Amino acid sequence: MSQTQAAHQQRQGIGRLFRLRQEIPAGISSAAGFVVPVTLLFLWWLITSLGVVKPLFLPSPGAVLEEGWRQLSEGILVSDASVSIYRILIGWSAATIVAVPVGILMGNFRIIESALEPLISTVRYMPVVALIPLSILWAGIGDLQKVLILFLATFFQQSLMIMDNVKNIDRNLIRAGQTLGFSNFEILYRIILPAALPGIWDTFRITIGWTWTFLVVAELVAASEGLGRRIMDAQRYLATDTILFGTLFIGIMGLLTDYLFKKSGRVLFRWNNQSR
Questions:
Q1: pTM for the complete prediction?
Q2: Whether the Cβ atoms of residue 221 and residue 229 lie closer than 8 Å to each other
């Protein structure tokens, strides 16, 4: 093979990586996921090692790791993480239990969509932080108040997304069910729900990520434990290594949750994998 042909094949290989919706080898996909984080980590280490920024404003990666090890060895990290995960699961699950039927009904019945969408669309733009004083009045300062904040942060977005998941189903499938004489319930149960489930599962994956982002807000008031509470306490003493470690740890927990939803979705909805 001549050098010209080899160079041409190499250009074609690189071009395949940038084709629309083109699958790429798993090894290249995994490597691409590491390149950006490793590059940023290296730049972070370089900047702090050269003393470009004072440690008070940006601690080194080593200092953040030391803080993480301290929290782990003293049992602080496990205690905080278990409390926060408990609040996330309860808040997100409560929002999901309500949002799924509401979203499905809105997606299938125009009258329910007309009645609820203006209200839900309005409330979803309200800043959850502004509702903290009211949430304390309604639910006190215990776990219920934190769960309520996580519920409010998740429910409204989630119900609208589920409505869209349901509405995006091919109408021909519904017409086929009507032609076969199915009742509304049978069309919902046998056609709409199976067709919408992969999209609804993706909505679950996205919205639990949002719930994680509101954890610090939820644990802002009167919390004695939790990852968000640890970050807020560190803010008072300018403990930037604790702030960075807590933020990164929440990000990693969110990433793991996302990964679990993706993997389980591929197993549960194998028939849908080729269409994505």
A1: 0.84
A2: no
